[in-house]
Amino acid sequence: MGSPILAPSMLAADHTRLAEDIKCVEQAGCQWLHVDIMDGHFVPNLTFGPQTVADLRPKTKLFLDVHLMLDNPQEFVEHFIKAGADQVTIHVEPEYDIPGTLAKIRELGAKCGVVFNPGTPVAAVEPYLEQIDMVLAMTVQPGFGGQSFQESVLEKTKQLAAWREERNLDFRIQVDGGVNADNAPICRNNGVDTFVAGTAFFKSEDKVAFRQKVEELV
Ligand SMILES: O=C(CO)[C@@H](O)[C@H](O)COP(=O)(O)O
Ligand SMILES: [Fe+2]
C-alpha cells in the first residue's frame, strides 16, 4: 500500500480563477491535483477540455491526475497527455478498446488507471490490474461534486487490496466522491491510499490541517 495522497478536485474550485485556487492546493502541501473531464454523454455535466490542462501545466508542478468521464476516451487520451496530464484514468463502463487505450496512455509517457462506478462490479477492473498504476473506485455516481459518500463501495476497495497483495501487484487504490477527513480513516482501513476531495477540501478553513488528517500525518 502506498503512502496516503490527497488529490483535491479542481471541480470544486472557482472556475473563473483556477490558477489562484491551484495555488491554495500547493500551499496546503498537496502533491496531486485531480482534474475531472466530463462530456455531457457518459455523465450529465460538462467541465474542462485539453486547453484548460495545457494552460495550467506551466503554472504548477502538481501531479495532474486526469479523470476522464467520456464515452470515447480513446479519442482524447493523446490530447490530454500532450496538454500535460501526468496520469489518465479511464472508465470501464463504455464499450471501447480498454487494454489498447491503457497501452496508448503508457506509450505516450503518462501513468494510467481504470475507474468504475458504484453500481459496477469490481470484477470489471480485474482484467487490467497488471497493466495499471491506479484503480479509482467511485464513491458517488459520477457527474457532480457535493454528493454523499457511498460507504458500501469500500467492500470493493478491500477486494482490490486483497488482489494487490495476493498477486504482488503495485497499483494505487483511489476513492472519489464525498470524501472528507471523517471518512478517510475507514477508507484507509479498506485498502485506499489515494483520496480525491473536492467540496470538503475547498470548503475547509484550514487546508493544511485537512491534508494532514487525510494523509494520516496527525
Ligand atoms: O469525479 C468526480 C465527480 O464525478 C469527483 O472528482 C468530484 O469532483 C468529487 O467532488 P466531491 O464529492 O469531493 O465534492
Ligand atoms: Fe473525479
From TrEMBL:
Family annotation (InterPro entries): Aldolase_TIM, Ribul_P_3_epim, Ribul_P_3_epim-like, RibuloseP-bd_barrel
Swiss-Prot/TrEMBL cofactor(s): a divalent metal cation; Co(2+); Mn(2+); Fe(2+)
UniProt-annotated binding residues for a divalent metal cation: 34, 36, 67, 176
Catalytic activity, EC: 5.1.3.1
Catalytic activity: D-ribulose 5-phosphate = D-xylulose 5-phosphate
A biological process from GO: pentose-phosphate shunt
Name of the protein in question: Ribulose-phosphate 3-epimerase
Recorded name of the encoding gene: rpe
